[in-house]
Prior knowledge:
Number of strands: 23
Helix content: 25-40%
Shape: elongated
Largest sheet: 10 strands, mixed
Low-confidence stretches: 227-232
Strand content: 15-25%
Radius of gyration: 26 Å
Number of helices: 17
Distance between the termini: 21 Å
Amino acid sequence: MxxxxxxxxxxxxxxxxxxxxxxxxxxxxxxxPSFLREAIASxxxxxxxxxxxxxxxxASPDPRIPTLLAKAAAADLRxxxxxxxxxxxxxxxxxxxxxxxxxxxxxxxxxDDRLAPEALYEIAAAAAANPTAxxxxxxxxxxxxxxxxxxxxxxxxxxxxxLLAQNMVSHLGxxxxxxxxxxxxxxxxxxxxxxHDLLLRCLAxxxxxxxxxxxxxxxxxxxxxxxxxxxxxxxDRCTAASRRAVAEYLAGRGIAADLVPAPLAPAYSRVVYHLxxxxxxxxVIVPTRDRAELLGPCIRGVLDRTDYPAIEILIVxxxxxxxxxxxxxxxxxxxPRVRILHRPGPFNYPALNNDAVQxxxxxxxxxxxxxxxxxEPGWLRELVSHAARPGIGAVGAKLLYMDRTIQHxxxxxxxxxxxxxxxxxxxxxxxxxAPGPFGWLALTRSVSAVTAACLAVKRADYLAVGGMNETDxxxxxxxxxFCLRLRAKGLRNVFTPHxxxxxxxxxxxxxxxxxGKQARFVSExxxxxxxxxxxxxxxxxxxxxxxxxxxxxxxxxxxxxARSWMQAN
Length: 569
């Protein structure tokens, strides 16, 4: 941080009308003394002057620790500490430290980690800007024994799906003290994932909108070559505690689900939601114009290789003329699950789907391209298990190219180069089994949009937002527009990597390779920018410090959001 930045922060602090006391809570058990000194010093170095450091020593056997703490408290009256008579582990020690806290906000700090100098100021600024905030969290990185920083985790805004899979909040976390008192602080028996459990209980109490994310690295998490922290030494126990916390959160909300390791990231979790009983009818809508060699395997995969009990297929024929296509239609005539809807005229993807929805009988709609291929039986169960949930809008699958690299791992808004960007696919080109940074390609996540190449949604929600835009977006971006309209209705769109299909992208319609197609594409881009420009420039599920050029967690050349002290008053 530059001297100018520090001066700007100090000036902002002087102008703030509310200056809450920040209680930094630190449980301590036998850390390396030099790391403990650094942790304490990082609090003392805070630009925000209104703080107290509340420490509970959990009966550390190293006699240097209580001596160090006593000296620190004697030299700085803002440091308050207590020593527990017996070791009670991290939840008990955290509660003992919490009992010392007097501030409006409680900030959690491990005994060997460090805060950025502006950390407490940023929390105060976020609290001032968001008066209803109950939990505030930041990005984080790692720091080694020599003070070298690495592996930053630039997080999204709070994602309830991702929070069930991993503790995406973690460090730096700040909580209103009265909220922690209301939920009785840390729970015994959840040691190792006590903070994950705390977050889930906070979420159940105050809801998603009470969480505020600061997109800046304010916390440096110590990683040493000789594991000393609870999490490093006891990963299996931490994982078990995390799953117990998630299972109890789901059960407390009456949600029927099983919890299993995420297949490609087993330290994280997958929630397998139970299907409603009876399973809802799914109307699979497949627009096509000829291409029988693609359509046939697509439809047969849905009919014959899909483990789902209630399916109808509506093939929307848009002026097919080839004999092979009509022969294929004839082969489906005897199957009562298949209907052919003839819709002639110029290609208009939204109109074809909107027409089919009027004929659909299913509670759940599945929009499916004719150039997709079923590769595993459980794909539709997974999609429906999410689409049927209250509050969920569109649900998208993990789509793979023929070479088994990823085509679609969710849609990111604003992705691409230039000023008129709209959206692009996350994970594009990654290996099929790559978990992705922080497990994102292996975990169910909330996203702003998913591709309509394979998209599940409740029929009622499809109709509630007026279907797809068949006037302005006849070919491109109609799925992004549709998903954003679902989001505007308060629904969350979800990507699940646990439903996989092959996708021969653009093999039916082709590419934007003629002047007419290119002109139409430009007009659709401009419509999206005019309609959704603000949303396209601020995807809540993609950190403004990350690049939108390749969407692979590389750091942006320049953050898209200014730090709080640089913003206009």
